[in-house]
Structure formats: C-alpha cells, structure tokens
Predict the structure.
Amino acid sequence: MRFFSVFRKNLREQSRDILVLSLSLSFAPMMVLVYQLFFPGGSTAYKVAVLNQDAPVLMADGSRLAGGEGVMAAMREITYANGDPLIQVSMVGERAQAEAQLRDREIQVLLIIPENFSASLLATKQGEQTTPAEITFVGDLTNPYYAVAGVMANAALEQTVRTITELPQPVQIVEIPLGGSAARSEFEVYVPGLLVFSVIMLVFQASMTITREVESGTLRRLQITRLTAFEFLGGTSAGLCLTGVISLLLTFAVAVAVGFHSQGPLWLAVLVAVLTSLSMVGMGLWVAAFSRTVTQAFLIANFPLAFCMFFSGVMFPIPKVTLFTVAGGAIGLFDILPPTHAVAALNKVLTLGAGPGEVAFELTALAVLTLLYFAFGVWLFQRAHLR
C-alpha cells in the first residue's frame, strides 16, 4: 500500500537529516536536565532572618518561657511532605545587616521579635491587661517570594502564640492534598509541561519535512504516480507522530532518571502524546501551506510554536478565562490550543494518578481539536500544493 511506502520514505528521510532529528528528540530532555539543575533540592526553601530581641521570663512554676525561640522552632518545623525544609531560619544580630541581605535578595523576610514578647504572652496567659508586643515584618514587596515567606512565618508566629496563651480555637483546619501533590518537588511540577513541550517541538519538524518535499520537487514527482493526498499526508504524518512519541518517551525517561515519579499509567500519557502530535502535524501543514522553502517554513513555524508555548500552560500556568461551559466542563480563552488540554491531562495523570475516566473531558477536547487542526491543515495544503 502506498500509505506505508510514504511512511517508510518519511522515516528514511528523517534518519538522513541527523542534525534536525537529533535536535527535535534531544531538546526537551535537555530542558528537563536544565530544570533539574534550577531546582537541585527539588523544593524552594524560603529564607527568613530573625532578629530575636526577646527576653525570656520565668513562669509561676519556675519554668522558662522563651517565646522568640518558640517562634523560630515553629518555623523550622514547617516542611514539605518529603521532609525538606520549607523555611530556612537564620539569626541576625543587627537590623542593618539583615536589610542589606533583603536588598540583595539573599533572604526574603526579616522578622523582628521585640524584648517584651515573652512577657506579653505570659500576661495574656494569666488574663492580665498588657500592651501587646509589636512584631515587625520587613521585606521587599516587589520580591514575589516575600508574600509566601511572610505568610508562613506569620502562621508559625500565630501557632506559637496560641500554644503559649492557650486561647480557645474556634475551628480546626484540616488540609487534604489531592493525589501525590503534597509530595511533589518544584522540579516535578514542571515535568508534565516539559513532556508536552517535547511534542509541540514537532511543529518545526512537520513543517520543514513537508516543505522540503515541495522545495525539492519530490511532491510533483509523487503526484505523477497517482499518489492520493491521504496516502501522502497520512504516511508522512504517521512517521512524524512516531517521532513525537519517541521524543515524549525519551523526555519521560530522562525525567524519571533525575527524580521524577509518575502517579498514573504511562500508556495514557502516550495516548495524549499521539493526539497532540497529530495536532502539531496539522499545525505544521498550516505552515507548509504558506511556505515555498524550508527556510520560510522554519521562520513561520516560530509563531504557532510561541503561541503553544506561552498560552497553553506549557512554560507557566495561565489564568483560566472561562467563556462558556460544555458538558459541565469550562471552556477558556486558550482552550482552542490543543496543548492546553494535553498539559491539563498529563498533570492529572502523572501528578494526581488519574485514570482514563477522570481525563475524559481533556481527551475528548484534545481529540476534537486534533481532528479540526489536522483536517484544516490538509485542506490548506491541498489548496496550496496539491491542486
């Protein structure tokens, strides 16, 4: 069958262009290694410096009350699920020294505990009227880490105050993490997006591979053999999809080798990769329809690649702008991009351990968009080069 002849031809041509094939397959795995280097410990530890001026006091039973030390101990007890510290506490002797570290962003928060902190807590515990101790938080409000570190330090402070004063708690807070999200390191959070990134790189390979057939005149010679559009585009797309799946598996293997742990089935991730690969091939056909040379295809392909990278959640989370709902699922502004649903599906599968039923909406949306992208790409390419 001519479909398989084109498929084999495409694989042979890809194997001859070792440089392009190597870049397509190795770029995303290299990004995984780079991200792992960015987050070597796997988790961000927020740095809080403490200027502890507190003077410990003796209680009626002769025991020593040191509220400042209690606050620091409470901050050190805040950890990730895997035991890594969430706050790194350091003591400073001078405020000027700590403020210099804040300006250089060596620390995120300076916590100043006043001299009367323990005395104020003891008076409150005994029901006496006293001037509340003034706790001071100092930080650079333009530093995005300041808000996170400040909230956690304040939580440790409130916990210490409640423990010492024994004031009644009106509610009890219980946190239940979804799936394996509590044990996820910062590096692992980025892996699903990187896996999708390994597939969307296919838009370069697809557009350049197909345009090469046009530029070299091979497409005209193939048309003389009465090759149908389905056989040519189907065989070529099958070869490219195989490249996309290999790229995802290679990227996944590198991620696992450097510490990533998948919570869900790999075959479901491969299914997502196949659908996303077909949509990227369809996008590559859009580019090839407007290209006469491989150089043109390379330049034009940068635009759809940029949209897929920065507006689908591959590189960083995108706020959900809901337009309407379908079958109980919210459709957002950027949901017209197939990688958006691929990222959502892989996050559920690999992080939360979701099965096929739990990602049915994402798979359906991805399948519908893939069909539309590919069909429109075939129509454009036929009008431009096969008529």
Confidence is low (pLDDT under 50) at residues 169-176. Residues 87 and 327 are 43 Å apart (CA to CA). Residues 2-39+185-385 form one domain. The first helix runs from residue 2 to 16.
